């Protein structure tokens, strides 16, 4: 047996985010709808860098941003991003005052949230939303900008239909008190990735009822939004006045109908190459044994860096334009590749996944190998991996 080591100065694993791909995907969505486009940049822009994705999307057709919690919204403000931002999932005691001062719009899933937001902001002087509303009216505080959130069928976030008309009436009273303005009504689809599923039409009907109820209470929400990536691509009836696009921006299409451009490439150098005899077992638990003499390459990437352990035994990486299997169990910090007789040298760079242009594996393939979805792969790349924006 012999082991070859990588030369000194060999780089560590590196994740490249292709902002050109994000720009192209954003344009694709903007061209698919006459509704406005909200770029959803929660979870650090689906792992691609929230501020980079936000700026790129805003420069290519998106006009609004969406995130989960207020902290994510405030982090974008700290980056100097002044576009409208909606935050849709917060505890009832979240810092709504800070959100209002930063001009962050808030989703309201319950009466308790409504009261907390009205109370928290009634005392403050929220920043008016200049993008949508033009110059502020100096004679009055605009109050908080809110989007009432109706549960349209996931039993997850959003108000239950039974609580909806009370929520709408209370919101209207708060408008008249000038503590808030209802600028939006939102719902979400459970089956948008299965376009023909009857759950979609049920949800659309419930959403239409929710809008009617809001209108009957005297509300005039400008932003009416139900569709995310998949419904924007497959269901024009769900578009209303705003589409919320997250996964699609980074090249993931849950409906599998549209060619989008994956924005992530993950690469790692081969740090050692060793020659092993037939019958040599590899890795924890010896789950793989070399059937013949072969070369094994070691990559400094493991599940702590976001590669799923469950892809052990099925995953591949590309080296010199050819695919090689990952063998044995993926470890926390490393994985082993069977190079066969390919004369790969330490220091050469393996592509773990990329857009697939050169035959390298894609995030979609890794998701299949691991029995998961692409979203889970891209949002879990670890902090140890160096990041580069291209
Ligand atoms: C994450 C999320 C989105 C974005 O969904 P994609 O399918 O990734 O476009 C939209 N709306 C809500 C409420 C979300 O949580």
Task: Give the secondary structure arrangement, pairings included.
Elements: E1 2-5, E2 14-17, H1 19-32, E3 36-40, H2 42-46, H3 50-58, E4 64-67, H4 70-78, E5 85-87, H5 96-101, E6 104-108, H6 111-122, H7 130-133, E7 144-149, H8 161-176, E8 180-186, H9 198-216, E9 223-225, H10 229-234, E10 242-245, E11 264-269, E12 272-276, E13 281-282, E14 288-289, E15 294-299, E16 316-319, E17 322-327, E18 335-340, E19 349-353, H11 363-370, H12 374-378, E20 386-389
Parallel strand pairs: 2-20, 3-4, 3-10, 4-5, 5-6, 6-7, 7-8, 8-9
Antiparallel strand pairs: 1-12, 2-11, 11-19, 12-15, 13-14, 15-18, 16-17, 17-18
Helix pairs in contact: 1-3, 8-9
The structure holds pyridoxal-5'-phosphate.
Pyridoxal-5'-phosphate binds at residues 40, 42, 88, 188, 228-230, 244-248, 254.
